[in-house]
Amino acid sequence: MYPSPVELAQGFSSLANEHVSSLSPHLAAAGAVGLIALQAFACLLVADFLSGLTHWAIDTYGRPDAPITGPLLTQPNIEHHTHPRALLRYSWADAMLMPISAAAIIINASWALGFWHWTIALTCVLAAFANQVHRWAHRSRTENGRVIVFLQQARIIQSPAQHAQHHRGTHDRGYCALSPWVNPIVDTLGLWRALEWLLQHLFNLRRRPDTPDSDHAPHDAHAHADRRKPPQFRTISS
Ligand SMILES: [Zn+2]
Ligand SMILES: [Zn+2]
Description:
There is one protein chain. The protein has eight helices and no strands. By secondary structure, the chain is mostly helical. α1 packs across α4 and α3 packs antiparallel against α4. The protein is elongated and about 90 Å long. The site of one zinc ion has 6 residues, from α1 and α2.
């Protein structure tokens, strides 16, 4: 006795349901992992943008003679523009103390105020890490070693060639220092110029005059840099 078409359809349907229900835990797990990966990538982009926003604010409006921010932030940034490799003279602890402290304060504050989330913590940690990626961008391949060079070439972190865009001309682009993805977006959109226009019209804030980059002569040297061989910043005399 052959099954009727209805019985066949019911048989296929129950088989399909069994198959889907056996797969669903795996699909749910894959979906959860994908969502976490997506959130982590979003944290990376936000952290990179925050690093750029801070850098832009210091470069644009920081005053070297201001009481606290002058010696802490603006003077080192001006020195970095005139002598890019000078930042390597600072120890890792000196360079990372401020960003790690800022990250720790925000993470603790978010915990104390009851809105802690792992994405906030990860964003803060990555934003602090941008300072280290920036230092690597000013070191030679030999100084960085294979692992860091691989991360730079694989576009996992920002490379010296990408960061060199900030050190060309008037230091008014390429503020983000962590990844290779955020700078092209914000620079193409003209976000920094739009913010400057807005702040000038709202509060009469004007850009601080740029300080020329005395370690790079001519600036256009980076424009012709070999993509396979990131430009090397000259070491200042120590
Ligand atoms: Zn700068
Ligand atoms: Zn730099």
